């Protein structure tokens, strides 16, 4: 008697969020906001977190805005791409600048990008950080 093998159906990451992250130990959030012409969704002032003394400025889209990953990515890239040169300038000045994608996942989960999304991410010219959370939700 043959045993039937079930191929698991790939699942996508859940409760994703996408963020443009700018970090520095000497971060001045008001200056960054003015320089970029964007309103951050999160600011952590330098020294306020004992685990990481850096300050953090984020332009973030999460499930409170939309649960659709592509819409989250589009929202952040639509804000970031028009100020790409300024973002690259910040990186050259020593700021840590990256695009972060976070979500809950497990070992068989995937996250899919269209070719257009990859093109837009690469146009930004900064690092991409995939931050899977494998804790049970």
TrEMBL record:
InterPro entries: DUF4279 (IPR025459). It comes from the Bacteria. This is DUF4279 domain-containing protein.
């Amino acid at each position: 008697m043959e045993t039937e093998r079930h191929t698991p159906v790939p699942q996508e990451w859940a409760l994703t969020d996408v963020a443009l992250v700018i970090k520095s130990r000497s971060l001045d959030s008001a200056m960054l906001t003015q320089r970029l012409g964007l309103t951050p969704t999160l600011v952590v002032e330098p020294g306020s977190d004992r685990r990481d003394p850096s300050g953090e400025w984020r332009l973030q889209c999460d499930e409170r805005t939309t649960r659709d990953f592509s819409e989250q990515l589009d929202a952040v890239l639509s804000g970031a791409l028009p100020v790409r040169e300024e973002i690259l300038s910040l990186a050259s000045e020593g700021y840590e600048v990256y695009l972060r994608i976070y979500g809950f996942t497990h070992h068989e989960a995937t996250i899919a990008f269209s070719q257009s999304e990859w093109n837009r991410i690469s146009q930004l010219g900064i690092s991409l950080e995939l931050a899977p959370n494998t804790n049970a939700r």
